[in-house]
Amino acid sequence: MTDRFPLPPGDWPVMQPGWVWLCGAGPGDPGLMTLNALNALNQADVIVYDALVDPRILDWARGDALQIYAGKRGGKPSAVQKDISLRLVDLARDGNRVLRLKGGDPFVFGRGGEEAQTLVQHGVPIRILPGISAGIGGLAYSGIPVTHRDINQTVAFVTGHDQSGETPQSVDWHALARAAQVIVIYMGVKHIGRISAELIAGGRDPADPVAVVTDATTPRQKVLETRLDRVEADIAASDLEPPAIICVGRAVLMRQVLDWQGMAAGAPPRNTDPLGRGRAAEEK
Ligand code: SAH
């Protein structure tokens, strides 16, 4: 069969029947998908995809490929994780070439590790295809560099809720407040009140800048800029809806000069020296 979308010349891996490829689809914008993902879409007989996979990406699948929705979104009826994994096992055992497509990167807060482990435990061969995670690519689309030499030498990626849906007990929020100059929170909207209070109690400046980016990299992307002690109230007063990435730390200030989407739409940069260095960006 000829590929629907020819790839540049290269040694592209061939999907074999009975295999499952766990693949990241990126945070939304189909252009952020990898060539490996496109190669997989060209070949897969079955695609099992999550709620956060952009529908435009599924349009690129082979017309005769079976598409199975395995969404798991807070508050909505969701497939049970174990059932999804066992479904993948069954599909592979039936001789399908299975593409498990997940939002962002499959191994970043996406249970890709558990699914992959279950497949291996059932003797199903796997390939892992990483993707651009929302906590990096989504912030870049809002003009926030996740690291910047004048701001941070550390960045922490943290989930705002654990398996029970509560603020994770296993996260030492006070230690995080001191140790991570930039904190990127996934799934954080529901518990942002608790999280921001813990961070402030742990010594974080209540005025620390915060950005909330929803539907990052899609045409619906919205960005709320606020500060740590106001983020809960400002989200409540807004019309923002998950999925959201929340970024805490001075990296958020860089948006004043790097909001490239705003600039492309004609807005001038708000402040070309948001860190107040008083000199050109690359002068010592
Ligand atoms: N594996 C994914 C994360 C899955 S957890 C990744 O690497 O990006 C789901 C959470 O990711 C969401 O609750 C939200 O916090 C974040 N997320 C994923 N896509 C997003 C997007 N387009 N915009 C904002 N947040 C997003």
From TrEMBL:
<dbReference type="GO" id="GO:0009236">
    <property type="term" value="P:cobalamin biosynthetic process"/>
</dbReference>
<keyword id="KW-0808">Transferase</keyword>
<dbReference type="InterPro" id="IPR000878">
    <property type="entry name" value="4pyrrol_Mease"/>
</dbReference>
<keyword id="KW-0949">S-adenosyl-L-methionine</keyword>
<keyword id="KW-0169">Cobalamin biosynthesis</keyword>
<dbReference type="InterPro" id="IPR006366">
    <property type="entry name" value="CobA/CysG_C"/>
</dbReference>
<keyword id="KW-0627">Porphyrin biosynthesis</keyword>
<comment type="pathway">
    <text>Cofactor biosynthesis; adenosylcobalamin biosynthesis; precorrin-2 from uroporphyrinogen III: step 1/1.</text>
</comment>
<dbReference type="InterPro" id="IPR050161">
    <property type="entry name" value="Siro_Cobalamin_biosynth"/>
</dbReference>
<feature type="domain" description="Tetrapyrrole methylase">
    <location>
        <begin position="20"/>
        <end position="230"/>
    </location>
</feature>
<protein>
    <recommendedName>
        <fullName>uroporphyrinogen-III C-methyltransferase</fullName>
        <ecNumber>2.1.1.107</ecNumber>
    </recommendedName>
</protein>
<dbReference type="InterPro" id="IPR035996">
    <property type="entry name" value="4pyrrol_Methylase_sf"/>
</dbReference>
<keyword id="KW-0489">Methyltransferase</keyword>
<comment type="pathway">
    <text>Porphyrin-containing compound metabolism; siroheme biosynthesis; precorrin-2 from uroporphyrinogen III: step 1/1.</text>
</comment>
<dbReference type="InterPro" id="IPR014777">
    <property type="entry name" value="4pyrrole_Mease_sub1"/>
</dbReference>
<dbReference type="GO" id="GO:0019354">
    <property type="term" value="P:siroheme biosynthetic process"/>
</dbReference>
<dbReference type="InterPro" id="IPR014776">
    <property type="entry name" value="4pyrrole_Mease_sub2"/>
</dbReference>
<dbReference type="GO" id="GO:0004851">
    <property type="term" value="F:uroporphyrin-III C-methyltransferase activity"/>
</dbReference>
<dbReference type="GO" id="GO:0032259">
    <property type="term" value="P:methylation"/>
</dbReference>
<feature type="region of interest" description="Disordered">
    <location>
        <begin position="264"/>
        <end position="284"/>
    </location>
</feature>
<dbReference type="InterPro" id="IPR003043">
    <property type="entry name" value="Uropor_MeTrfase_CS"/>
</dbReference>
<dbReference type="Pfam" id="PF00590">
    <property type="entry name" value="TP_methylase"/>
</dbReference>
<comment type="similarity">
    <text>Belongs to the precorrin methyltransferase family.</text>
</comment>
